[in-house]
Write a structure and sequence with these properties.
18 helices; Preprotein translocase SecY subunit; 70% helix; three-stranded antiparallel sheet
Length: 427
Amino acid sequence: MFTYLRQLWHSEELRKRIIMTIGLLLIYRIVAHIAVPGTDPFALSSFLDQRSGGGIVGVFAALTGGAIDNFSIVLLGLSPYINASIIMQLCTVIFPKLEALSKEGQQGQQVINKYTRWLTVPLAFIQSYGFLILLGQGGVQLVDLTFPGVLLPMLYVTTGALFLMWLGELITEKGIGNGISLIIFIGIVSGMPTTLSTMFLAGQGKQAAFFLFAIVSLAMLVAVVLFTDAHRLIPITYANQGAGRGVQGNIPIRLNQAGMIPIIFAISLITLPAIIAQFLSTATRPVLQAVANFINININPNNPSILYIAIYFLLVVGFTYFFVSVTFKPDEVAENIQKRGGFVPGVRPGKQTAELLAKVSSRMNLWGGSFLGLVAIVPLVFTKYSTLSSQDLIISGSGLIIVVGVVMELIRQINAQLLAHDYEKLV
């Protein structure tokens, strides 16, 4: 361990990147405690108490590291930027010009990133209004929600979201690892101390449940680590001109091809009915009130029903297939293999190779998506049939996948930097 840390410190480039990353993440945590100007913090505290942990607000609070609890200017987190990224990914499939840009390598990706940033601005502005209205339905006046008084708080929250986007991209450029993922990671982890203190102060009944959940969490952690690195190798033989034997290679198809994206998609969609129910709760029409009551009973993140758990699981599996279908193109991969003079042993180049890759990818998505869904719902099942609530859990299944994925990717990048540093010394 000490040898590893010494290697990190002796690598000047890596040392600067790590220090830069830590410094920028500290800035994020400081900003998360800066409240929207003009907000009454006591009114917000009263509101959250009425919500019993914030209701649907508590789901977002877990991903923003308490930014909502402080009514911070970054209370939206990275949600607008993530939504903009999702929309742009869909647009690359729909619009041929964007699809052509996505195939132009780094230069094309820079243009798409620019479009994503611009799209984040209106999305953040719209989301800020919706979120302020949602918070204002608790019966506590946090900010002025009348026009045009609401425009100023909306501007503060929108600016905070854009600042967080810029901070994440700055970490990616100047630091180590993916800045967006690291900010989400810090937001999730920062809530652990509070939950741990709750665990130790809990009553006898909850302490036993906490102990059992700790064992389950350790088992899930080991499974997620193994799952993240699991892959299947498709052997490829490249014709070696002038030699009797070809060059052997392989194409790895990961079990988790979509990463944490299906989880983020599913969370965004599964929380939408609860948000709608919050707006409908004040409706005067009996039909709308009935819809709100049905959603609150059956599709409530803080009180997960069997229907909620089933929908959540199916959404994760479905989004796994959807995302991989957008990002992984078997026809293009097969065409590139054929152009380079490669082939899968026993399979004809071209169409048959594409069919093989699509078949293998589909099977991996079935198992990978099912595992993602299982990890995501295990804590929900645990809270449903134990004395623990969703607020009592140290980390959710989705959060666990995000945390493990970020940590493992960070370790891979650090090891790659160390390898490059050692190679430069040898040269």
